[in-house]
Amino acid sequence: MEKITSFTINHLTLLPGIYVSRKDQVGDTTVTTFDIRMTRPNFEPVMNTAEVHTMEHLGATFLRNHPQFASKVLYFGPMGCRTGFYLLLAGDFESADIVPLVKEMFAFIRDFEGEVPGAAARDCGNFLDMNLSMAKYLAQRFLEGTLENITEDHLIYPD
Predict the structure, then answer these.
(1) Burial of 66 (0-12, 13-18, 19+ CB in 10 A)
(2) pLDDT for 76
(3) Which of 61, 92, 135, 137 suits a disulfide with 54, CB 3.0-4.6 Å?
(4) Whole-angstrom distance, CA of residue 88 vs CA of residue 152
(5) Distances from the Cα of 39 to the Cαs of 20, 115, 121, in angstroms?
(6) How far from each other are the two terminal CA atoms of the chain, in whole angstroms?
(7) How far, in Å, CA of 4 to CA of 119, rounded?
(8) Phi and psi torsions of 100, nearest 5°
(9) Does position 37 have pLDDT exceeding 90, yes or no?
(10) Pairing of strands 84-90, 73-78
(11) Integer Cα distance of 73 and 121 in angstroms
(12) In b/e form, how buried is each residue of 91-129, taking b as 16+ CB within 10 angstroms?
């Protein structure tokens, strides 16, 4: 079997950032998959499931209610390695195109107060595994450390 695209990326040189992971044609529509990498793989600790789960609920809620992008959002969810998230959008996009959206989303997570949307037994299969304070901390860390002064090194996969 051939390696899938995401396993061909050199994770030893990958920095936190926003990367185009792949583009697929579905009928007449291009689907762009983004790698939103929050921690440096194999160098930093991975994120715990509770904060990842919380960010998934908040991020998905934000994206699916966004005035410009809601109709383009196909999926937002965590990577199995717990170093970031995948965002799938209908449309042909580049990383720089969604920097403002991703900044907005992580500011929303950082500033969120109250009950996490969908964090109830009726709405979620693991509603007790949430950590809002750590989700907010990690969102702030990603905003300050990567998104606020993002450069090309954090938008294009390294060779």
Answers:
(1) middle
(2) 98
(3) 135
(4) 21
(5) 16, 26, 30
(6) 23
(7) 33
(8) -60, -40
(9) yes
(10) antiparallel
(11) 25
(12) eebebeebbebbbbbbebbbebeeebeebeeeebeeeee
Where does the chain show beta strands of DSSP type E? 17-26, 29-37, 73-78, 84-90
Distance between CA 35 and CA 100 in Å, rounded?
Answer: 15
CA-to-CA distance for 23 and 30, rounded, in angstroms? Answer: 6
How do the residues of the chain divide into helix, strand and coil, expressed in percent and rounded to 5? 35, 20, 45
CA dist 83 and 101 (Å) reads 19
- For residue 117, give the 3-state DSSP assignment: coil
Q: What is the largest CA-CA distance in the chain?
A: 47
Q: Rounded CA gap, 16 and 36, in Å?
A: 8
Percentage of residues in the chain having pLDDT higher than 70: 100
> What pLDDT digit, counting tens, does each position of 111-140 carry?
999 999 999 999 999 999 999 999 999 999
* Nearest residue to 146 via CA among 83, 94, 90: 83
Q: Which residues contact 89 (CB under 8 A, 6 or more apart)?
A: 31, 32, 34, 69, 72, 73, 74, 98
What is the pTM for the complete model shown? 0.96
